[in-house]
């Protein structure tokens, strides 16, 4: 009972102290912002707790730094102008903000949204051709009756009593959708070579349900894959690791055959959210779609596909993050 009382009291004291901490951070930032040509800021989570070790980057200036133990960061000698600033840390969704920096400096506040990483799928070589594997939950128990489907094909299967499945797929690049009652939808990218198959181990995360937006984005992804031609490319996680680009921009230059400017934005997880390509870390990517011409009817930023790619890009780019 004593330990429990101590824990509850500690939490109560922390909640009460939060407004005082916020005022302290604000005062510190205000003092820093008075320095000419300075861009300062603070990074917290959605409850207001400061986050240290967050990578903060100004793309146009090719400058980055990490927040300190109080969540504070500061860039000196920033010329007046408009900038896009990105903040990212493992365990949180990346976030970008646009800011205008005058002579007197500016302040930014990031509130990063946390998310729980599910266990990453394991893709390995298999002697048997096609795609085989097993589906389980996060407690390592097999899931019976989960559906495993390769998008843009008629190949689908249900897992048996030990969670196993097999899809007779030929060589190529595929997006595999795994669904099960009471679990989040998983999208995994797989490249099957000509001389062997692939084995996939997937761990499903419990959920209360998927959103209509998620279903719509997967439907649009399936439509794009069905209409994919020589002007469109799909890079799976395995392809990205094999190519070993220095960053996403280099991958896009190879894939699109054209320049990629700082203002080029990728559509994240099917939309409507977007992010500058320089702000997306390769290790966070599950797959990348590159479409030289916008696919008719595709949803781009919540509207019908335009006749040309977004400004700064030589193609329309979709980035799907690992979850």
Number of strand segments: 22
The overall pLDDT average reads: 84
| Share in helix | 10-25%
> How much of the residues is beta strand, in percent?
35-45%
- Tally of individual domains: 3
Question: What is the helix tally?
Answer: 4
The CATH superfamily of the largest domain is identified as Carboxypeptidase-like, regulatory domain
Low-confidence blocks of residues: 1-23, 294-307
H and E string: HEEEEEEEEEEEEEEEHEHHEEEEEE
Strand order of the largest sheet: 16-19-22-17-18
CATH class bucket of the largest domain: Mainly Beta
CATH topology heading of the largest domain: Immunoglobulin-like
Give the biggest sheet.
5 strands, mixed
Termini gap:
39 Å
Description:
This protein folds into three domains: 2-112, Sandwich (Immunoglobulin-like), CATH 2.60.40.1120; 124-204, Carboxypeptidase-like, regulatory domain (Immunoglobulin-like), CATH 2.60.40; 226-321, Ferric Hydroxamate Uptake Protein, Chain A, domain 1 (Beta Complex). It is α+β, with helices and mostly antiparallel strands. A five-stranded mixed β-sheet has the order 16-19-22-17-18. Helix content is 20%, strand content 36%. It has helices spanning 2-33, 212-226, 237-243, 248-256; strands at 39-45, 55-58, 63-66, 72-75, 81-88, 95-101, 106-112, 122-126, 131-137, 147-150, 156-158, 164-167, 172-179, 186-192, 197-204, 232-235, 265-268, 274-276, 285-291, 299-300, 303-304, 316-321. The chain starts with a helix and ends with a strand.
């Amino acid at each position: 009972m004593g330990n429990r009382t101590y824990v509850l009291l500690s939490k109560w004291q922390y909640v009460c102290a939060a407004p005082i901490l916020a005022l302290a951070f604000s005062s510190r930032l205000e003092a820093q912002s008075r320095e000419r040509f300075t861009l300062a800021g603070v990074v917290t989570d959605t409850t207001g707790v400061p986050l240290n070790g967050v990578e903060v980057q100004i793309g146009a200036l090719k400058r980055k730094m990490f927040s300190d133990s109080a969540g504070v960061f500061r860039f000196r000698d920033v010329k007046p102008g408009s900038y896009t600033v990105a903040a990212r840390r493992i365990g949180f969704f990346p976030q970008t903000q646009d800011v205008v920096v005058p002579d007197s400096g500016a302040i930014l506040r990031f509130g990063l949204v946390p998310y729980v990483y599910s266990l990453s799928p394991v893709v390995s070589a298999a002697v048997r051709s096609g795609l085989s594997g097993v589906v389980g939950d996060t407690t390592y128990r097999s899931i019976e009756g989960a559906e495993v489907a390769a998008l843009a094909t008629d190949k689908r299967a249900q897992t048996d009593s030990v969670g196993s499945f097999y899809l007779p797929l030929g060589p190529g690049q595929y997006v595999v959708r795994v669904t099960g009652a009471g679990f989040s939808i998983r999208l995994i990218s797989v490249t099957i070579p000509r001389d062997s198959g692939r084995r996939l181990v997937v761990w499903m995360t419990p959920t209360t349900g998927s959103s209509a937006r998620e279903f719509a984005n997967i439907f649009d992804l399936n439509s794009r894959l069905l209409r994919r031609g020589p002007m469109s490319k799909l890079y799976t996680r395995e392809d990205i690791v094999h190519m070993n680009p220095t960053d996403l921009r280099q991958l896009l230059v190879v894939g699109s055959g054209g320049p990629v400017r700082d203002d080029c934005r990728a559509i994240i997880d099917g939309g409507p959210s977007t992010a500058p390509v320089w702000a997306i870390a390769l290790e966070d990517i599950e797959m990348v779609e590159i479409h030289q011409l916008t696919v008719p009817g595709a949803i781009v930023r919540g509207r019908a596909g335009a006749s040309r790619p977004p400004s700064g890009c030589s193609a329309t780019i979709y980035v799907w993050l690992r979850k």
